[in-house]
Amino acid sequence: GVLLAGVCAAAQLRRDVPSAVGMSAEQLKRASALLAAEVESGRVGAASLLVARRGRIVLDKGFGVPADAVFLLASITKPVTACALMLLVERGQVGLSDPVNLYFPEFTGEEREKIRVRDLLSHTSGLPDMLPENTELRRAHAPLSEFVNRTLKTPLLFPPGTSFRYQSMGTLLAGTIVEKVTGQPLREFEKKEMFEPLGMKDSSLGLGGRKVADLVPCMTSPKANKADEERFGPNSDYWRDMGHPWGGMHSTTADLAILLQTFLDGGTYGGTRLFSPATVAQMIRNQNEGLNNPWGLGWALAPSRAWNALGDLVSARAFGHAGATGTVAWADPETKLLCVILTNRPYGSDSGRLLRRVSNAVAAAVE
User: Fold this and answer.
1) pLDDT tens sequence across 130-152
2) I need a labelling partner for 309 at 20 to 30 A (CA). Which of 34, 47, 120, 328 fits?
């Protein structure tokens, strides 16, 4: 049952001292100090940092909030959506080489027939990151189904498979395929098939029954339009509970550490097998050979130049993802190291520099 899974899961990632797993306590203090300074200065409102190596948690700390505070992840949601779709690939219900219009028959013309399911997960579909009418849709509190309808008609930016362009709308279609095939809302499928079996008790797509006031608020730009912020900004009920497959997940550093550890351990966590080793291998392997922007299925890979906050000191095999709300989660199979940094200051305010600096300090702690 679920309770048992939780008990097993807790037994998996255990706390230990840095020296027990070949890490420098001194260097980890440096990583912490970087976040502490940003929060003390008020430049960042809240942050949480978790570091684990070889299944041992060696740093787990909150700054301005408890270590287990719940943050809006933004785009770290994308690899989680990919995980849900990959469960259906494993079960033989969806194929990565299926044309996307197998699931959306109206998705035709302008070479749309050439888009494969895998293109949605590796950012090679030609779909845009955001729809041209994105702001109007949000202002009108449009439901996700309206975003899907518009995505099926929006002009492609390039012929499918010929280029790389980071795209949230491809992830939206991937999540919608999960709903069509399973007949369940994506948030329910993820809860039942992923979060509960792994013991990720604080994770949800959308609010998961919580109030926005109980979660870490996102910092917003002083230049932002106040009326728009209240209506559809990152702290609005609409945006927090929309459950958008490209950015609507809430979680903690501890829960994301469980997911990363599952990948480091070939798909198993605490006695629970969630993914086959074959699935894990495909998801963290470059799917974009020859396109000059390596990406896995859902996961960003260290050599990629797009959206990279994994830092400069991880190995070429590292995988992870960053989020626009100021978040990053990554793991390095080479060093068996994982790191989750959640903050509430937008990634764009410094182009991810703080996240990279902290990641560098963490990666350098391996002795």
Assistant:
1) 999 999 999 999 999 999 999 99
2) 120
**Side-chain-facing half-sphere of 119: CA atoms under 13 Å:** 25
Residue with tokens 């499918």: 160
Cα(317)–Cα(340) distance, integer angstroms:
17
Q: How far is CA 362 from the centre of its chain?
A: 20
The candidate with the shortest Cα–Cα distance to 331, out of 252, 246, 253, 263, is 263
Beta carbons of 160 and 111 less than 8 angstroms apart? yes
Cβ atoms of 80 and 190 within 8 Å: the answer is yes
Gap between the terminal Cα atoms of the chain: 40
Beta strand pairing call for 56-63 and 47-53? antiparallel
Q: What is the pTM of this model?
A: 0.95
pLDDT band at 127 (very low <50, low <70, confident <90, very high): very high
Q: Helices in the chain by DSSP H: which ranges?
A: 2-12, 25-40, 77-90, 117-122, 134-139, 144-153, 168-182, 186-190, 196-198, 226-232, 237-241, 253-264, 277-283, 353-363
Q: Give the pLDDT confidence score for residue 14 in this predicted structure.
A: 96
